[in-house]
Amino acid sequence: MRNGILYPVSATALILALSICAANAQKRYDVGASDTEIKLGQTVPFSGPASAYSSIGRTQAAYFKMINDQGGINGRKVNLIQYDDAFSPSKAVEQVRKLVEGDEVLLTFQIVGTPSNAAVQKYLNARRVPQLFAAASALRFSDPKNFPWTIGYDPSNFIEGRVYGQYLLKEYPHAKVGVLYQNDDFGKDYLNGIKSGLGDKAAEMVVAEYSYEVLDPTVDSQILKIKDAGADLFFGATTPKPAAQAIRKIAEIGWHPVELVSMKATSVGSVLIPAGLENAKGLISANYGKEPLDPQWKDDAGVKRYFAFMDKYYPDGDKGSNLNTYGYGVAQLLVYVLEQCGDDLTRENIMKKATSIKGFATDFSLPGITINTSPTDYRIHKQFRMMRFNGERWEPFGPILEDTVRPG
């Protein structure tokens, strides 16, 4: 009789135990993740020469607060730990080691700046810690063969340059191209990229290439040399200050080439106003995202969500700043990736999901532009749309352009 009573109880206990084991088997965590929390680490230049970029980190901290208020990611609250690296590589190393070994974060997210990301890349890959969506544009941050645990967010300067070359080959096949570039990897990646896009015609079409040093007071002499070489299309592979100088000098000397500038030099406030808005009229560049204050997006659902977010969670932030829309979009992408991970919050699975994104668009992606990655192609941005400055704002034109050359 006793055995008859005990048998169903034991069976029930066994079934319950198996159910618990099955439920637990579906949940897999690495350090920094649990049933209630996802711990992320980030360094940002809150001080130092690049402190303007601190608004990226502030926007992202505010975004994750909004996510937590909405219940978190699959029921888990995001704990974003941020440290100031002052845009110093040595300090970035110190702070990232603290995040990994002291705070025990699950991953690093959007470390800001090429120098900081480069300084910690080997360390994070050796520790097999995801370096997700690095705010840097060098090719090394989208190199799955050598750095499988790193995936950059920004389009590489080389790829952007190559897209320009492909565009010129189609629209200005007989142009005589003059290039002004910064004499370091930043500028050389653009120069090599545009030549790659021009292909066999690069030697014929590029008639002048002159560099400048970061500390040069002006680029006036380079502009004169490019003009004298007979160029009728100017490409500025520069940062904001020399870009403004070049645009103004071109106007002053009465030269009227087709003018093309990198995405790094498209800010109305820091480039085009100092250059003179009238001087910048007709300027060509490319983009992959919406401009928040552009009237054409006033009824756009994604832009409306961004403004509502800023009003509530970052009211002191500049709603029109591309740095803030940038930070918002990257945070949105990370939330999407972590949602796809479900209850498997291991570092290996996070990288698997981050490198198998299909057709995702942030609230600021231009219509038709999506993010797609694979285990052999870590590039987040390889689709662009050309745009032209009309004297007041940038206007997109033409079809979506995509860099179709496979990496490696």
Automatic annotation (TrEMBL):
Tell me the ranges covered by the Leucine-binding protein domain, including all copies.
37-390
Instruction: Give the family from UniProt.
Output: Belongs to the leucine-binding protein family.
The family database entries (Pfam families) matched by this protein are listed as: Peripla_BP_6
Q: Where is the signal peptide?
A: 1-25
Q: Which UniProt keywords apply?
A: Signal
- Per the record, the domain of life is Bacteria
Protein name from the UniProt record: ABC transporter substrate-binding protein
InterPro entries with a match to the protein in the record: Leu-bd, Peripla_BP_I
The organism named in the record is: Tardiphaga robiniae
